[in-house]
Design brief:
transit peptide; serine esterase; two-stranded antiparallel ribbon; 12 helices; HOTDOG_ACOT; binds decanoyl-CoA; alpha+beta; about 25% strand; mitochondrion
Length: about 450
């Protein structure tokens, strides 16, 4: 990353290159005005992100006031637009924010982010990314005159998080940046990046793409958001990529194994695995034996339970997406650790779909298993479902996909049933969609 990029906040002019902040160039006074107006100059301290969100949505700071806070939000309903055309277009720069996590300069912050191995807790990073993603969307949709937003913005999807091949130190400052990169009618794609100080320079360590959805003041139905106007060829390319991403997601979902049979190649893979587990001593489809250095998928499972307390609520009295991700990630990490026999490192997160909100007071059941392995890689799937204390009915809220890397080669995982075979193929599809396989490095230190 160029040093000019770090001076983004003091430049107040030029062209937005995502992940690089502003580069010098354009002298357009209109652009300067936008940046003064949006006060995007100094990075926000990580501890202030949630405070800002609380202000924007008018959240109560204590649980006893939450009913009153929701009543007040109902009054904002009349400020919602009836069509997208009514709303002024925004630029990528309008939502651009930088957030500072000063682990180096404020050591008292470290405790919250530290693992026992003196590495960074990735679960905490997931929480920060989620809050930042929501704040970015509120910047895109903000109305200058209004103190509070009539929109309820929720995390719909973590499309992808790729770790770059760099170590993360708990003793150096971290900076996040991001902006809206594509919009539909009610949904927004947000691109975020994370940088860490190495010497005098911030180097990129993570790329993330989330999709957020705008809902009405009470989070009961969809709500329109401002259009987005790309300002340069780079931004046009980002926007086009957002459009393609939407198409890719639709195609991926249409081919889901929950809807369609596996391809011929996938069927062959599963049948060969099945044949590999037949006992050569008995001519029977029933007697199954594991090949050497392999584990049955059902023996890779770990489960946990969370009681969802008000502390983890967002304004809508639902549980924060970031908290759910942290809990799922930590269970997924423990599953990979248990399976591989050594401390694994996260290399990619993808396709976390927030299908249903989790209400405060619910019981959250997380169930994690290894569904695919290759060389040093372990693909873990975590399924979460909720049940209220009153009803025994369980409902799926999320499915999480994590790719870990172990220091040693890991055993193969074998499905025993047809359902497990589908999990295996789904895991393989997710593994193959990882954009940049990371090479094994001993200094690659990102843990739960
Ligand atoms: C302390 C104070 C802080 C206050 C800040 C609060 C911030 C809170 C942020 C969070 O943590 S939210 C908590 C975690 N997320 C959730 O609980 C969301 C749970 N899921 C849902 O509520 C619904 O599934 C969701 C609203 C996301 C979608 O509902 P629908 O499927 O009925 O949506 P619909 O069919 O109306 O589609 C609306 C838009 O979403 C898009 N969409 C829906 N699901 C999607 C998906 N999975 N991926 C991508 N896009 C998706 C869809 O394409 C469409 O886009 P466009 O209008 O632009 O065409």
């Amino acid at each position: 990353m160029r040093r000019a990029a770090l001076r983004f906040c003091s430049l107040n002019k030029g062209l937005l290159i995502p992940g690089r902040g502003l580069t010098q160039g354009s002298q357009n006074p209109e652009k300067q005005r936008v940046f003064h107006m949006h006060e995007a100059c100094s990075p926000i301290h990580v501890n202030h992100v949630r405070d800002k969100l609380r202000e924007i949505v008018g959240a109560s700071t204590n649980w006893s006031d939450h009913v009153k806070a929701m009543e007040e939000r109902k009054l904002l309903q009349s400020f919602l637009a009836e069509s997208q055309k009514e709303l002024p277009p925004r630029r990528m720069r309008d939502s651009y924010i930088e957030v500072l996590l000063p682990l180096g300069s404020q050591p008292e912050l470290r405790e919250k982010y530290l693992t026992v191995q003196n590495t960074i807790r990735f679960g905490r990073i997931l929480e920060d990314l989620d809050s930042l993603g929501v704040l970015i969307c509120y910047m895109h949709t903000r109305v200058q005159e209004a103190k509070m937003s009539p929109l309820s913005i929720v995390t719909a999807l973590v499309d992808k998080i790729d770790m770059c091949k760099t170590s993360l130190s708990p003793e150096q400052d971290i900076k996040f940046s991001g902006h809206v990169s594509w919009v539909g009618k009610t949904s927004m794609e947000v691109k975020m990046q994370m940088f860490q100080l190495h010497g005098n320079e911030f180097c990129r360590v993570l790329d993330a793409t989330f999709v957020m959805v705008a809902r009405d003041s009470e989070n009961k139905g969809p709500a329109f958001i401002n259009p987005l106007i790309p300002e340069s060829p780079e931004e046009e390319e980002l926007f086009r990529q957002g459009e393609l991403n939407k198409g890719r997601r639709v195609a991926f979902s249409a081919k889901s194994l929950l809807k369609m049979a596996p391809s011929a190649e996938e069927r062959t893979t599963i049948h060969e695995m099945f044949l590999n587990t037949l006992d050569p001593k008995t001519v029977s489809f029933r007697s199954r034996v594991l090949p050497p250095n392999a584990v049955w998928m059902e023996n890779s499972k770990l489960k946990s339970l969370e009681v969802c307390h008000p502390q983890e609520r967002n304004i809508f009295n639902r549980i924060f997406g970031g908290f759910l991700m942290r809990k799922a990630y930590e269970l997924g990490w423990a599953t990979a650790c248990n399976f591989g026999g050594s401390r694994p490192f996260i290399v990619a997160v993808d396709d976390i779909m927030f299908q249903k909100p989790v209400d405060v007071g619910s019981l959250l059941f997380l169930s994690s298993q290894v569904c695919f392995t290759q060389d040093n890689y372990i693909q873990v799937r975590v399924h979460s479902e909720v049940a209220s204390l009153e009803s025994k009915e369980h409902m799926t809220t999320n499915v999480f996909h994590f790719t870990f890397m172990s220091e040693e080669k890991v055993p193969l995982v074998f499905p025993r049933t047809y359902g497990e075979s589908m999990l295996y193929l789904d895991g393989k599809r997710h593994f193959n969609s990882m954009s940049t396989p990371v090479n094994l490095r001993k200094d690659y230190l990102v843990e739960p």
